Amino acid sequence: MLRALLLQAFYSVRSERQLVEQLDYNLLFRWFVGLGMDDAVWNHAVFSKTRDRLLTSEVAQQFFAEVNKQAKRFMSDEHFKVDGTLIQARASQKSFCKKDGSNDDGANFHGQKRSNETHESTTDPNARLYKKSYGKESHLAYLGHALVENRNGLIAAPMAWFYSALDIGPPPVQILDVTGPLEVSSSAPGYEVQLGNPGPDRCLQTNRGVSLTGATPIEEITGPIDTLIITGGPGAETNVYDEVFISWIAEAAARSRRVASICIGAFLLGAAGLLDDKAAVTHWLFCDRLAKEFPRVTVRPEPIYLKDGAVYTSAGITAGIELCLALVEEDHGHQIALNVARFLVMFLVRPGAQAQHSHMLLRQAVTSKPLRELQVWMLENLREDLTVEKLADRLGMSARQFTRVCLRETKMNPGQFVDRMRVEAAQQLIDSSSMGLKEVADTSGFPSAVLSCGFLG
């Protein structure tokens, strides 16, 4: 069967039915899959039902692992690009019917206005209606992405996927709670992002006087949701909740693969009962109130985001961006998430366990502008020999004067200050990368892994 699937891929056979038909008369196909001249071919329906189990079996995994092993020596580790395309779904236009079932079987669709919000395929509900460009015909398809090695044209990582991300919160929403996750999801491949509104309008009000258009009222949001994101805003932390919206959150969560909250959106998840007997986090200013209002929730005030089962919660404002990057990494891997972070020009991608109160941010509170600029240079040059004399020379100071300034601004002498920055850089690498201790020590500027152990405990 694995050989038959290879034939289907190599010769672009569109269906299992057509593949079985060709196996019946094509002698080369019969020879390749091991069928004799008089052997009966498989039933196409049985083949289709067995295919998914085969692809997750040990035999298939060993085959693909061996292919990767043989191809690895031909691949560069530097020159890659991501190519996107539409992969046509095995579903006809006639199967694209209204979600509420108000129309006929979908056969007479010409002249009708159809969209992914109001229609879905009855044979492949995850397929979406896409067109390659303006004026082109629409097809039911998936978003396809391939990581291609440029020198030899080898595909290193293919992906054909669809994720629906729904971002919703009670107005006026905290603007960055909404736009941060929207930017991350829109910058990553394979997501269809939708903005929801608990009210009847298609315009969502924010707490900064800016209105976000294109929102969909919740009563129009039906069908499965991949990721439901509940955002916060002024008043979300009070114990006065819109019962209709809370009921909708509970109902929508039941048809979602995972649910997340940004900032004080955790209070809305709590009111919907989604945080019962789970660990959660919110903005540090409201952690005590969350614990008091929902005693069944284990509130952990330190992390910037938490995962407990299929429920994710995050701390305030920009922590929502970090959480959504973590979701992208879950779906697509570390490299794609890192590429999104680079596109968004993020200085640092923080792991979920990192404290809300950043020690690096506290050190940036120093009043001396030259010293703040020196901190940035030090973070980029931790491998250098950062002696007192070298650091003082960069600021045009004597070693003694630099030591006095450092003690006054950071409450540490220069040596302690350098060690602290290296320790935090090492902790960041340990939390967010697969580097070994020796590589972490080298990147962070420690002379040896043994010495780094003394600082990292």
TrEMBL record:
SMART domains (alphabetical)? HTH_ARAC
| Coiled-coil regions listed in the entry | none
The record's Gene Ontology biological-process terms are: DNA recombination; transposition
Alphabetically ordered keywords of this record: DNA recombination, DNA-binding, Transcription, Transcription regulation, Transposition
Keyword Transcription attached: yes
Keyword Transcription present in the record's keywords: the answer is yes
Q: Where is this region: Disordered?
A: 97-125
InterPro entries the record matches:
Class_I_gatase-like, DJ-1/PfpI, Homeodomain-like_sf, HTH_AraC, INH-QAR, Transpos_IS5, Transposase_InsH_N
Q: Name one GO molecular function term.
A: sequence-specific DNA binding
The record places domain HTH araC/xylS-type at 372-448
Entry similarity comment: Belongs to the transposase 11 family.
Stored PANTHER family: ARAC-FAMILY TRANSCRIPTIONAL REGULATOR, HTH-TYPE TRANSCRIPTIONAL REGULATOR RV1931C
* Full protein name: Transcriptional regulator GlxA family with amidase domain
Q: State the species of origin.
A: Granulicella aggregans
